[in-house]
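Quick one: structure for this chain?
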Amino acid sequence: MRKCELRLLGRIGYREAFELQQQLVAGRKEGSLPDQLLLLEHPHTITLGRNGHLENLLAGEEGLRRAGVAFHTTDRGGDITYHGPGQLVGYPIVDLREWKRDVGAYVRGIEQVLIDALADFGIRAGRIPKLTGVWVGERKIAAIGVHISRWVTSHGFALNVNTDLSYFHLIVPCGLTKPVASMAGLGVHANLEEVSTAVAEHFGRIFDCEILPGAGLSLACSENVL
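Got it. Here's what it folds into:
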């Protein structure tokens, strides 16, 4: 069975996490590392994907400063999204040549990991045809945006656990005018550690890999804003 190292990074800045992903992607491409699953939390951050539209950012530079929200453009797919405290962010670094050479199957696999993890907490989540992500009814509880280079993945998903959803008012999430949801808002008061455990377990099952503890990295949290 393939190996996948789980790295629980706590709260770190978006730039630090991006640089770490780049290092791990390079190691995965050269074969010096097994697959990786990074689970973490970001400070208040808005990111714009490579297919994003800046008009979906509803706050200006000064508004973001007042709200204490950082802004980053990035190379993942998708449009605009918010990351912040209480949200579980996952960055899988997976060589799809050793699983399935199918980007669509990979995204559906990530969705299934989150659907199954939410079911462990009594939340019935699912998909909406032609839309990426995980939904509870018409409300989006998890966003997905990935980048794939030479079949090695980076970026990933963001699951609202006990996120302050008011920060989503700063954007049009993923370019869609649909509401967002959180586990806490649905009455499930789980912490990030509990949800991380469930996500890692289902990730190993869906992607046919053995989850092993990876190195814990001590990275400074960046609070820089736009």
